[in-house]
Amino acid sequence: MGRLLSKAAPVMLLSLVVLAGLYLSLQVYLSGQSLAAVSLVAFLGLTIYVYTATRAYNYRYLFPGLVAVLLFVILPIAINFSIGFTNYSSKHLLSFSQATKYFLDQTYTEDGHTLAFTLHPDGAAYRIRLEAEDGSIFQTPPLALHATKVNVNAQPPVAGDAPLAAAVDTRTLIQNLKALKLVAIHLPNGMTVSAAGLREFAPVRKQYVKAADGSLVDQQDGAVLRPDMTEGFYKNAAGEAMQPGFTTGVGFAHYVRIVSDRALSEPLAQIFIWTVVFAGLSVVFAFSIGVILAVLMNWEALAGRGLYRVLLFIPYAVPGFISILVFKGLFNENSGEINLLLGHLFSINPNWFTDPFLAKTMLLIVNTWLGFPYMMLLCMGLIKAIPADLYEASAIAGAGPLTNFFKITLPLIAKPMTPLLISAFAFNFNNFVIVALLTGGRPDFLGTKIPAGTTDVLVSYTYRIAFEDSGQDFGLASALSTVIFLMVVLLSLVNMRISKTHTSEPA
Amino acid sequence: MAVVLDKSHRWRVVAAHIGLISFIGLTLAPFLMLLSISFRPGNFATGELIPSSISLDHWKLSLGMSYQGADGQLIEPDFPVLGWLWNSIKVAGLSALIALLLSTTCAYAFARMKFVFKQQWMTSLLLLQMFPSVLVLVGIYAIFDRIGAYVPSLGINSHGGLILAYTGGIALHIWTIKGYFETIPVEIEEAARVDGASPFQAFRHVLLPMSLPILMVVFILAFISGINEYPIASILVQSQDQLTLAVGSKQFLYPQHYRWGDFAAAAILSGLPITFVFLIAQRWMISGLTAGGLKG
To answer: In this complex, is the C-beta atom of B154 within 8 Å of any C-beta atom belonging to chain A?
Structure first.
């Protein structure tokens, strides 16, 4: 029984996955995304092949992991890259077909032809009675009022019909209003009417009709809307853009803007310089403190090193988002404990969050605090590997600790540390979390079109363009992050070359 | 080290102790202040670092209890801190479990099996890992927006989507586990194969039990990085009760709604267990960090 189960379980699991996948592809197909549906089915086919064919046995172990990497690492990169060539933003969220459908779904109720209506119970169903302004009367057959769309014909009452029951009270009417709004009644004169209130039905017409050349004609005033494929809007004859816009390709427009639009490129240049300065100084400060502490932690004459090491490690162990927010509170200009102390000791009250230079200083202080334990750990390992006889020889030569540090320790760890320092630089180059949580990029530059902060690094600026106060311009943000991406690639290539020359040489 | 010690050596030791103690004092001062603030009445500095009166109000709020305010009004907790902590633990725990499952099987294939482009696969995995996800947030957002249109429980503003998004970051785990697998002699599995075990049985019943330590390490590493992750969580979850701790904690310190004392209590309450796990895991972390770093 157990063996049977263990044999049947994988088959059942696979069939379950395939069934769920097929259902999903059907849903995707029905919503009009046929390309996505086809790729989904192809993917399912591949899954079945990998898990049934003996030739693909080895790939069974790789498949789930590679799929995860493909879907959530590579695909976002590709999509991000392609969005950089579109105008995808809060004003252009919909696709062209979705935007067109939006306009075609718009309706209006025609004035002057309203009909009074009453609702009459008929068993469990209801009948609707309409009375036009000229006194003519129409009645529907019994309807079950559920929250679904209903199309029904109404006829004038014929002599010999059973009389209608008394009309329902207002309360019942309100309860059924939602279902009533979905009822479309076709009158004998060809008019179609829908509920326009608690007492009235009115003719409802499509606002727009699509013409053969793809333009939309307004049925009320005859105005013509034409899609502008370069700007991503339907426009009327006067050239005014109609909301909602749609997503359309803009080619290299964002990249051109990044380089040539002064309103964008000037703050961007300053942000780039600050990003490099921030990343460089963070590494220098953290490394300087880390290497001194590492030397001390490797000094055998020092008692209690184990305890020191744990205590020094704590800033690294506390979750970053907590310690950054702790500093945000402590540095607060009005009620923070740091200004409280500084006020008592030196009677000063620095504006940590409103002065650009102080805000940058604060970012560096906090980032050094966060980063030195990691540098200490790395250096400790490397210093431990330095042969002790080097220090013995220098002691015999009468060298002091400073000479030892600068002539032996530092030169010997410099080489293996270089790739690690470059990695740390790359990490801080993209250190979004500290900027986002501590200053949010603020204080902002004055007089820029898109809000840009003096403490923003490139990634936090990109984030603001995409998700915060700067207009949700996904297209521009994607183009910008593609540029940053290339910088990171460059850094990684340099790093790989350096670490390769390091490992190929005998240490 | 057989070196003759001179007199200045002793002073240097004392100076080092003093230097270290004051440095540690300085680095840990923020946490001591935090502790004092969490017991201080009110949400604004009252001009004292050591509170003269102890108040448990902040702690009550962060534990989800209400308390009687000074004017007799009942003050309800603003933020579901414990809920956020639970969200974080849930998301980080499940994503770590899935990441472990995916990376273990991949690592097995990389360590023991032959297939085309094996070396290229591994190098590209490692390269991909270098790029921070914060650069492709728009792409991630677009993907989960699309997924959510068909499967809402995996889309924007769902924990399912967040868990899925985190499972992409498994390349480093694959490398770590693969390195460990390679230290285990392949002969043991071969013996099992001779006795009639399938490759999967050799993997499941021979290799996995022997690799339990590294699996624990990878789980803890993935768990911690899930708890600490901020950028993806900040775009994928939006409604108040769905937030993770990393995203939610920020709300305590909005200028219009400054809750410094409440934040202090909540930060200690939620930060302590995570720090504790991290300190326990640090031994493996160090070896992992340096090993990974030296390989470049």
So the answer is: no
